[in-house]
């Protein structure tokens, strides 16, 4: 009998990269998972894992408040992982309104539904992002840095943070905020992202494309380490020094885009491929990476289990299988 055995859990964004891995882990730990699913994507990791047959599916979107309140009430949800969002910077730049609707309205809808179901809901973990900080002069960012997102996606995540904190401070909704860098791992089929796009190019013997000038510095955080961090945080939210707090999670080893591409090419055995640097990226922050010292200090010595040398080969093996490349 573990912490999650028979516990009713609601996961938004369950079919995404983090959502699919978190949902699988919750199912394996015996949780009674209810997943919010907007689009049924046949190739998604969620469906490939057969999770649609292991959880209760609520079909709809975050913009539908009545649906969220009904789901939390009827399934007597005790724990919520709010991962659902429009997460692509380029998509946000092309259509900021849709991003604000999903990320901002979606968050206050979810938090209001949790407030209305306060007798049942005991913990809400809300996924923010390192982008919520905007551009800060002090690196690495710690949790005391101001939230100053200026570009559409960044601003939407700043709002996600502030809304969550408002519901905690004003109404006592038991919530915590997570801020991670760029997640990578098995299940990410968004080829516009650096890691999956570079892996696919390398496995096909093609020169990988870099949208930026290659100098941007970021965190790259393995998805299975993120899952462990989210669960560790949720399991400690009964503590007064944890609930209501924001936590950065990273491996504390930032890399430039060019450096990350070189690491991927080496792991794929294709150092002969020279990346094509397009220099087309807009609305991006040059240097942005996190300190996870607070998480290390307060969460029982939490630390990432996988280093990149171990995590990348695991991801590459999955992409070989998906792409049918031996």
Largest sheet: 7 strands, parallel
User: Strand content of the residues, in percent?
Assistant: 5-15%
**Over the alpha carbons, how many angstroms does the gyration radius reach?**
19 Å
Order of helices and strands: EHEHEHEHHEHEEHEEEHEEHEHH
The percent of residues in helical segments reads: 25-40%
Side by side, the strands of the main sheet go: 3-2-1-4-5-6-11
Topology, number of strands: 13
Given the structure, what is the number of helices? 11
- Alpha-carbon distance between the two ends: 41 Å
In the CATH hierarchy, what is the architecture of the largest domain at level 2? Answer: 3-Layer(aba) Sandwich
Quickly give the structural class: alpha/beta
CATH topology name of the largest domain, in short, is: Rossmann fold
Q: Segments where pLDDT lies below 50 for 5+ residues? A: none
In total, the number of domains comes to: 2
Mean pLDDT equals 95
CATH class division of the largest domain: Alpha Beta
Any idea what the CATH superfamily of the largest domain is called?
NAD(P)-binding Rossmann-like Domain
- The outline comes out as globular
Describe the structure in brief.
Helix content is 40%, strand content 15%.
Structure report:
This protein is an alpha/beta fold. The chain has 2 domains: 8-182 and 222-249, 3-Layer(aba) Sandwich (Rossmann fold); 184-218 and 253-289 and 306-321, UDP-galactose 4-epimerase, domain 1 (Alpha-Beta Complex). Helices cover 40% and strands 15% of the residues. It is built from 11 helices and 13 strands. The protein has helices at 17-28, 45-48, 65-74, 89-94, 96-116, 152-171, 194-204, 223-235, 257-267, 293-298, 308-323; strands at 8-12, 32-37, 56-59, 79-82, 123-127, 175-180, 182-184, 209-210, 217-218, 220-222, 246-249, 255-256, 276-277. The protein has a 7-stranded parallel β-sheet, with helices on both faces. Helix 1 (17-28) links the parallel strand 1 and strand 2 (32-37). Helix 3 (65-74) packs parallel to helix 5 (96-116), helix 5 packs parallel to helix 6 and helix 7 (194-204) packs across helix 9 (257-267). The longest helix is centred in the first third of the chain and has 21 residues, at 96-116. The protein is globular and about 60 Å long.
């Amino acid at each position: 009998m573990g912490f999650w055995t028979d516990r009713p859990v609601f996961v938004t964004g369950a079919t995404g990269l983090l959502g699919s891995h978190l949902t699988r882990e919750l199912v394996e730990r015996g949780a009674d998972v209810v997943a919010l699913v907007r689009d049924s994507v046949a190739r998604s990791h969620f469906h490939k894992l057969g999770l649609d047959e292991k959880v209760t599916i609520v079909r709809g979107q975050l913009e539908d408040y009545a649906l969220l309140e009904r789901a939390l009430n009827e399934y007597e949800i005790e724990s919520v992982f709010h991962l659902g969002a429009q997460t692509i910077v380029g998509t946000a730049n092309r259509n900021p309104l849709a991003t604000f609707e999903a990320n901002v309205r979606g968050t206050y809808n979810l938090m209001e539904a949790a407030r209305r179901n306060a007798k049942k809901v005991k913990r809400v973990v809300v996924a923010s992002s390192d982008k919520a900080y905007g551009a800060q002069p002090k690196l690495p960012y710690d949790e005391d840095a101001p939230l100053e997102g200026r570009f559409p996606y960044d601003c939407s995540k700043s709002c996600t943070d502030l809304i969550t904190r408002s519901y905690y401070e004003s109404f006592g909704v038991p919530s915590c905020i997570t801020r991670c860098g760029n997640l990578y791992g098995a299940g990410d089929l968004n080829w516009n992202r650096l890691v999956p796009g570079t892996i696919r190019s390398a496995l096909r013997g093609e020169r990988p494309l870099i949208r930026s000038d290659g100098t941007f510095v970021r965190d790259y955080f393995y998805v299975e380490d993120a899952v462990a961090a989210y669960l560790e945080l949720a399991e400690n939210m009964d503590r007064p020094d944890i609930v209501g707090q924001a936590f950065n999670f990273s491996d504390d080893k930032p890399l430039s885009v060019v450096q990350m591409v070189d690491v991927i090419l080496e792991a794929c055995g294709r150092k002969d491929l020279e990346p094509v640097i397009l220099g087309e990226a807009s609305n991006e922050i040059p240097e942005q990476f996190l300190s996870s010292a607070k998480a290390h200090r307060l969460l029982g010595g939490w630390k990432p289990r996988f280093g990149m040398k171990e995590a990348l080969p695991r991801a590459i093996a999955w992409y070989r299988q998906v792409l049918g490349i031996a």
